[in-house]
Each structure stands twice: as C-alpha cells, then as structure tokens.
Design goal:
Elements lengths: L1 E5 L8 H5 L4 E3 L5 E3 L6 H4 L4 E5 L7 H10 L5 E4 L9
Antiparallel strand pairs: 1-4, 1-5, 2-3
Length: 88
C-alpha cells in the first residue's frame, strides 16, 4: 500500500494524527506529513505532495483507511500496490 498526502489542501485538522499516530504527524506549519524513518519531512514535500509506502512501523491498513475517511478535506489518498486507489 502507498500513502499520499496533499499538503496543499491539508487544513491541519489533526484527525489523521489522532487516529493514526504511528503514521501521521503535523509539521510546524500545521500540515500533515507521513512518519517514515527513511524519508524526512523536508525530503517528502517539495511540491506539497508527500507519499510513502506502508512500512512495518506504521498503523494497520484498517486504521489508515479510518484516518483517510476522517480527513475533512480528503487530503489523504491510499493506493494498492498495483496503483489502484483504495475506495473510502
């Protein structure tokens, strides 16, 4: 699974962090980013889009779906390994 966040539309609601704290965090600007030990937030967001494959240290698929559903502006998108978007 691949996780993608569009920081350009993120409003910093924080519901994603409340639900999936192992995967999401808000940066100093109040924008969501993905916690991935291999990618720092600075390297993830040159265009305002951050993405990461699902890793073992992140939340489960079910929790990620719940977090994406909770985003009030749909800034979080989830994709299967074949590139198909996960239906929320």
């Amino acid at each position: 699974m691949k996780i993608e966040v569009d920081q350009n539309i993120c409003i910093g609601d924080g519901s994603c962090v409340m639900i999936a704290a192992k995967t999401f965090k808000l940066n100093p600007d109040g924008k969501c980013y993905i916690l991935n030990e291999e990618l720092g937030p600075e390297e993830q967001n040159p265009s305002g889009h951050v993405s990461s494959p699902l890793t073992a240290t992140m939340d489960t698929r079910e929790i990620l779906i719940e977090a994406a559903r909770a985003c009030p502006v749909q800034a979080i998108r989830l994709y299967e390994d074949d590139g198909t978007e996960v239906k929320l």
